[in-house]
Amino acid sequence: MKEKLTQLELFFKSSSFDRGLRLGVGIIVPFAILYAVGYFEYAPAIVVGVLLNAPSDIPGSATRRINAILISILLTMLVTLLVLFAKPIFFIVVLVIAVVSFMVSLIAVYGFRASLLSFSGLLSMVLAFAIQKETPLEIFIQVGLMGVGGLWYLAVSLIFQKLAPDKDQNQLLSDTLQALGTYLRLRTQLWAGNDQQDELLRESFFLQNQINDKQETLREILLTQRKRSGLSPYEEKQLLMLRASVNIFELIEAMHINNKVVHSIHAEHRNYLLPFKEVNNILGNHLIHLAELLIQKDKIPNKHVLLNALEKANETIASYIAEIGLPAAREGALTLKTIFDYQERLVAEIRVVRRIMANVKNTPDLSLKKKDSAYFLTNQEFGLKVLTQNLSFKSTLFRHAFRFSIALLFAYLLGYFLDIQNTYWILLTIVVIMRPSYGLTKTRSTDRIIGTLIGALFAIGVVLLTQNTIVYAVLAFVSLILAFSLIQRNYKFAAALITISIVFVYSLINPNAFEVIQYRVIDTVLGAIIAVVANYTIFPSWEADNFKQVLLNAFKTNNGYLLAMQKFYKDTATYKLAYNVARKEAFLAIGNLNASFQRLTQDPKSKQKNFQLLYEMVTLNQAILSAIAGIGNFVVNHKTTPASAELQRLFHRISSTLGIAYEILEQGSASKNVPTEALMDAEEKLLNKYVQLSNRRDEEISLGKTTMDTDTLHGLQEAYLISNHIIWLKSLSENLQKTTEHYVKTSVQE
């Protein structure tokens, strides 16, 4: 019960509910004022303007948010004007639907925020069919009032932003910490090596992409603001928390030690891994709790539970050595020590977050210079070149725009010739649920139908209980606010609330509420069927066909990350910025790869070409990222010895192999082969460094020196971790090349 109350409190304090309130204020104030002054007939047009322009109000830099809403206002006014003037003439309105739906859909090529602008434009086209205006004067007044409504919503948004300037950033940070905590716990489950590995990996793909998206939005908000006018003290702390979250993300990835090595060492002593799993679970739960407290503003929990768990894990290493005995226990102990070091650094980063949240003064300073901020911002191009590059059936978004316009035309003609009441409800359903991906469209269609049925049943229950118009008005208003708050979190529930709102709004106009409910359900089902069928039959976009480019980017950025880490290994001071930028690019590319793979799994089984090979390439790229992060993280936190010639040769071989895999995937074959010189000697020499240090340590033990100094320990760790990780990387890159060759050959045969 307490947990449910906590979740309810978090929802009402969230930025999602805050945006719902903005919409509520944007709607109720014009109604109240215009009713009071006797001009109530103008209120609906203003409210339509509010509804149409609210979708563009998403987290991001202030400039981009304002510009997006202003562009949205102009777009929705123009589209409404065109449709209202075209409606009386059948052939012209058909042409307008075809052209407007196609062109407005293509706006989405400019990114996520642009896709919301596109949605507003399409929504305005559909709602224009519900507006009954005959004369040019009436049309211009309607469109003008919609513009006023849009500007009014912009003013409301800015006021809310002024009252709570850090709400969006706090929510994004909270969501990031929540996802990191869940991701850490999930990665711990992967240690178990059970039958649910594939399912857990796919869930981890989703979480990785979610974390990347949140961190990217935070970078846009905080680094853009810092670059332009500087940050407030509180925003500087938020930037510190973002940096800590990035470090935590890398540490979780780096902790993905080669599981085969871990389990082969601890095959008969897996109980020694349990305390380390427990530490991860405690740290994950703590991150989730901090995420909640960031919104609730409650007292920070005691840190001793973290330190006690860490201490217990540390004691386990000594117990392991005592039971197995040296030198037999050395490799296992070093593996456990490596995991412990990652966890110790995780605790250190979590304590940074704790200190920031507790407003402790001695938090670390930001080392990122303002001029370097630009390297961490992902710039979206807005030139005409982006649009022209997508004017081809090779473009997923072009095909979607073409398919979408045909679906809307078919729905309109169906409604026109069958004289369906409120045809625009069918169009509205298509606009809301149809996406470039078949799988997402199908999922949203199902959620939309189920949500509509739930909402309809609720509305029927209310209508049977009362015919009170005040109750209808209150329910319509409250359900609309909640729907807008939940539309990104739970689309099914949001669809139910939207249905409730629409039914009761129409019930205020039409006393026959059951008729409204009936048409709402039928039109929703019709719209959903048209959307799904269109996605499946009209120039369909299957994710397997689009997967190549996403894979190529992952190959490229992983190789770039490897080379940046190699330079960083030589000179940490000179190449720190380049390393961090390459890390960011690699993590984003893997996130995009994971998101693409998620979409692939939603396509019909018959369209998932070479699924197993694609899955192998995804997991191999994921493992390569983790292995590079493992070496890079060790270099960041330890003083390392100069890279040997053998290590440099292995770095070069791995990079060459990744480059060849890229070329095979891109062109179908490689212009050069992997260097033929044997690297067994390089691997042996690299491993010999660890053997030599290990033998030296055995001699010290035989002479009675049982306590090992820090330098010796770090030397052993470096020799063991680097040699194992670099050999693991070599094996992963070779497997990736073989899998890529197999994939290309199989694709050619098909």
UniProtKB/TrEMBL annotation:
Record localization: Cell membrane
Entry annotated with the keyword Acyltransferase: no
Keywords: Cell membrane, Membrane, Transmembrane, Transmembrane helix
Domain Integral membrane protein YccS N-terminal, chain residue ranges per copy: 69-340
Transmembrane segments: 27-54, 66-83, 89-109, 139-160, 401-418, 448-464, 470-486, 493-509, 521-539
Record Pfam families: FUSC-like, FUSC_2
Major subcellular site: membrane
Positions of the Integral membrane bound transporter domain: 411-533
Membrane topology recorded in Swiss-Prot or TrEMBL: Multi-pass membrane protein
PANTHER family: INNER MEMBRANE PROTEIN YCCS, P-HYDROXYBENZOIC ACID EFFLUX PUMP SUBUNIT-RELATED
Similarity comment: family membership: Belongs to the YccS/YhfK family.
Protein name as catalogued: FUSC family membrane protein
